[in-house]
Design brief:
The chain is of the alpha+beta class. The chain has 2 domains: 158 residues, Fructose-1,6-Bisphosphatase, subunit A, domain 1 (Fructose-1,6-Bisphosphatase, Chain A, domain 1), CATH 3.30.540; 106 residues, 3-Layer(aba) Sandwich (D-Maltodextrin-Binding Protein, domain 2). The chain contains 8 helices and 16 strands. It has a 9-stranded mixed beta sheet, sandwiched between helices. A 5-stranded mixed beta sheet has the order 13-12-14-16-15, with helices on both faces. A two-stranded antiparallel ribbon has the order 2-3. The longest helix has 19 residues. The protein is globular, with a radius of gyration of 20 Å. The relative contact order is 0.12.
């Protein structure tokens, strides 16, 4: 049977809502790394170890491609963060949907699993060996060190999804220079996706072992043509911001609760125009902040203060930010 569409009016959004076309960047795989080496890995997913070249660069792309080698980025911090993500993927996927996974409730009644603890412990061990002078803050084991350079870790963002077998979860890794995120990596192996950014070098994404593409926010300027993503309603009500949040939902073209890290990265990709959360921590936001801003978007708290430190978040394509803030603004920030 052949399906014939007589009209696309009720199916397709207006053309200016569609995400921008992105130019794929072909990848060329280098030789496999030597066992036991600790050289930085490339942004890989889907199995196989595609390690960096002798100069610390990722697999080279075509000469005319607008993609910098990782050797150029932030004194090798980004390729190191990508290697940390590779290690995290191995642990999180080992435990994912495992019958032996142990789930406990933390003091704040949120779940924590073997995967959360094991992943953060391994990342901290690697940081202690490779970046011994840097400070570390993680969701499961708190803060250590007092350096200007601080790594911020969320071993499993979306733990509730993780324990229920929903594939929307990720490891979030960021490096802060003072209060400013300068490197961010988000790895979602169950989705076969990875995103990364370094300050001043753009934001990038990869599906599996496919093309690397640059992230770019949308150009939507009209709230009535915008797509909004969020996590849940509960936090908005608890903060006394539910009315404004619901008004924003009514004002936009489309709403979906993609949730957690994914909402914000969809903004970075231009697939969603606004993402917002009323209650979050630094480790939930640090990596996302640099990716969104390097993709051309804005990332603030609900008081309009830039960065990931406000305990809540509004991410937009930039054009819609001030308008969205008028609906959501928290005068307590």
């Amino acid at each position: 049977m052949r399906l014939v569409l007589t009209s696309t009016r009720s199916i397709l959004p207006p053309r200016d809502i569609l995400p921008p076309r992105r130019r794929g960047v072909p990848r060329r795989h280098p030789p496999a790394s030597t066992a036991g080496k600790t050289s930085a890995t490339s942004p890989r997913l889907g199995g196989g170890n595609t390690s960096a070249g002798s100069d610390g660069s990722v697999p080279r792309v075509s000469d005319d491609a607008d993609f910098p080698s990782l050797a150029e980025l932030s004194r090798a911090d980004l390729p190191f963060a990508l290697r940390l993500a590779d290690l995290a993927d191995e642990i999180t996927m080992m435990w994912y949907r495992s019958a032996g996974l142990q789930v406990q409730a933390k003091a704040d009644h949120t779940p924590v699993t073997d995967a959360d603890r094991d992943t953060e412990a391994l990342l901290r061990s690697e940081l202690a060996r490779e970046r011994p002078d840097d400070a570390v803050t993680g969701e499961e084991f708190g803060a250590t060190g007092h350096s200007q350079r601080r790594w911020v870790l969320d071993p499993v963002d979306g733990t509730k999804n993780y324990v229920r077998g929903v594939p929307v979860w990720a490891t979030l890794i960021a490096l802060l220079d003072g209060d400013e995120p300068i490197v961010g990596v988000v790895s979602a192996p169950a989705l076969n996706r990875r995103w990364w950014a370094s300050k001043g070098q753009g934001a990038w994404t990869m599906v599996g072992r496919g093309d690397v593409t640059r992230c770019q926010v949308s150009g939507v300027e009209n709230l009535g043509r915008a797509s909004l993503s969020y996590s849940s309603l509960t936090g908005w009500e608890e903060r006394g911001l539910l009315d404004g949040f619901l008004d924003l939902n009514r004002a936009v073209w489309r709403t979906r609760a993609f949730g957690d890290f994914w909402s914000h990265l969809l903004v970075a990709e231009g697939a969603v125009d606004i993402a917002c959360e009323p209650e979050v921590s630094l480790w939930d936001l640090a990596a996302l902040s640099v990716i969104v801003t390097e993709a051309g978007g804005r990332f603030t708290d609900l008081g309009g203060n830039p960065g990931p430190h406000g305990g809540n978040a509004l991410t937009t394509n930039g054009h819609l930010h001030d308008t969205a803030l008028e609906y959501l603004r928290d005068t307590g920030n």
